Amino acid sequence: MSNPPQAFFINRPPAKETNIAWKEPPPPNNPVVRGLPLHYGAIAISNLNFVQNILWSNAGFSSLRDREELKRFEPRYDPTVVKTNGPSSTNISSAELLKGLLEEDWTSKKPQDKAFPSTLDYYEAYKSGSVTPTDVAKVLLPLLQRDGKDTREHAVAFLQVREDLVLEAAEESTRRWKEGRPLSPLDGVPVAVKDEVDLTGYKKCYGSNLDFTRSDDVTSHCVKMWQDAGALVMGKTVMHELGCDITGNNPTKGTPLNPNNTNYYCGGSSSGSAYSVAAGLMPLTEGNDGGGSIRIPANYCGLYGLKTTHGRVSEAPTTGLARSTGVAGPIAANMVDLEIGYRIMSQPTPLDNDPPIVIPPGQVNLQSNRNKVLGIYKPWFDLADEDVKAACNKAIDYLTSKLGYEKVDITIPMVHEGQLAHAMTILSELCQGVKASDTHKLSAPNKVLLSVARKTTSVDFLQAQRLRNLIIQHLSDLYTKHPSLIILTPTTPSAGWRIEPGDLPHGLTNANKQLRNMTYAWLANFSGCPSISVPVGYAEDPEGKVPIGLMGMGEWCGEDELLAFGYDCERFVGEVLEGGRVRPGGRWVDVLGRAREGKV
């Protein structure tokens, strides 16, 4: 039997170490405005050129000019790296993949605790006949549908729910189960998708009053893969308007409150998707990742989130707000849900230039003898709050002392400047997707943000892409020196984001806190590397617990290693974390229980 061809990378950056001494980040100095002052101030700022220039400079966006470190690097605009076995590679068909998932033994991957029902719980309920997908749909539909301006606790997480499409898909799935021919473990399992992807029969507005719906009414590839596996798409979830911030505050379409603690945000931009899983409505949702959107809501809501670039799983070509800083990924209640959702959605799209050469994901190896290396840049890691560091370090101690992980010290150059370069890139791409003449249709925070972002010059944008190249070449050097390296940080340096009086009616702008909470999440987006966020503990709050997450960033196309790491962290939660994971109280919905009891 011949050995499989050795895998290699296409577009992998050269390995080039850059040593630049750590410098403490300068204290942020941006104005914090909320409520009515923001409402009226946004109107003025969006029309006052000199104020926009002041705010742009105040944000530090000019700090990349004339940097000697960047002169020897060419700009790199697209961080995509593809892993392949060569032109002779052949991918298994979608049907073969789904059949393999049905036949796979998932026993060892079932979650130890039962706080959150998993995809496998739905699978077993459908297989036994105690519940049908139609029963589940009829439980969920009354909870998710808006009634005019109705913002009931669950409905506010959803922008659109097409009852006719949901019931049609549920009845088809129910028929398949009765006939003993389910398509996959995801058949009939309720899921939801963020309003950043295309879904046939639905509009796309990116959580705004603008319309980005494609004229051809297609479904994004990653969602189509879930539908082909039989997943029951319940509708489109609300998001932070245009994905421009990390709170999920959306005065235009509604702001879901964190089910763990309703005094906190769910996180943005995939706020509705995270809410849906945290409240028990479904075990799996989709969340596009342009600036940290998957991992931060997963962190704020105590969930598992994977940002992946495997197979370029978002639609291609894209329309509207095209971004060069991340694509789609799942938000899940448990690791097994994350793995199933990822393996189905990440099949290469036929719109890729050469889809047969891409290596599709396979079974996740949980063997103890695999290579396990954790990298920590200590000065960067230590920027987190003490309670966050304590929870993350407790998990790291378990991984190294009990599960055989090796911990190595690493450095990453210019992380503070890199975060600004990432923000500048994201905002420039948003400005390309939203016409200046439409700015008045946006919420007050985005009136300010996009008006200021339009002051970015071509020189500044090019410098940001030079810095991108410097950073990813340094990362390539790290991954070359330490095969299977996973770079660890807290997901966010603080536990959650508390809602302040005046936030919800008109929104807020707090770039100081936004930048702090994006301290770590920007790197994977900017470099094109995959990353995972896993729950590892809770911070105490007078009104309830606030989840804390640990983030691991892997090498390009290293999602399988991240998933194995996630399962190990799930073991930590089950075996070490006192009390395990905490199910949200008043906002929790036992969907399978209601379906069994016939409650609608």
From TrEMBL:
Gene3D superfamilies: Amidase signature (AS) domain. Pfam families: Amidase. Residues 155-563 form the Amidase domain. GO terms for molecular function: catalytic activity. Belongs to the amidase family. This is Amidase domain-containing protein. It comes from Zasmidium cellare ATCC 36951.
